[in-house]
Write a structure and sequence with these properties.
By secondary structure, this protein is of the alpha+beta class. It is built from eight helices and eight strands; from the N terminus they run E-E-H-E-E-E-E-H-H-H-H-E-E-H-H-H. Helices cover about 45% and strands about 10% of the residues.
Amino acid sequence: MSQHFSLLGLTARPVTGKDRLSEEVDRVQALLDGAQPPADCSPEIPVAPGRGPMRVLRQYETVMTPSGLRTRRATAEGFHPAATVDAFDRMELQARRRDPEGPALFTVAQVEAGRVYAALAERVEAAGVKCSSIEGQAKAGDGSSSWIDAVIHDIQRYRRMLRAIGGEVVLAPQRRRADDPRRTIRARQLVDAVCVQSMTINELRRQYGWADTQRTRGPLREALCGALDRLYAL
């Protein structure tokens, strides 16, 4: 016989172990559903909840035909590779929801520059060494010089990118009170947040205590686009 508890005229059934199990099954199923690769992607891609949402990465190739050069898809439908959704994808999706016919937030070159920077920053961090600490090892002659040369090349390129990004102030409170939550946002923090940490501009703005207004939205997007243009020009 089930028991019920009454409080202020409201009757509630106690939560049972079966209820908790059902909720957990639903939670896990929702997690697995969200980790499914897109339908157009290869069936060989496994389900991995820790990977996050994915997008179709259609690839193309240019081939010579009797009538000249022609661009075609490099993979068949249903077998495309996939890539994890990043901040650029999420911001573009949000923009399309607000205005389906509106212009793209970023150019193809800007998005490519941001993703190249993110991949390079990840490789440099994964190397776990500083350029000055391995330059002397490049002459060791033990067969590892090719790897060391590649690491040095990545670090030097990363430094050039950091110089291109710069440290200019993008947003700063003009008159900051003691209880003012707003903090200064610099170009490097903006680029790292979007490209490396996969944060949208709105998420970064909230993290630094800024309200969502055109006065804050415009400068952040303009500064990000400018930094990405400088990266692409390297």
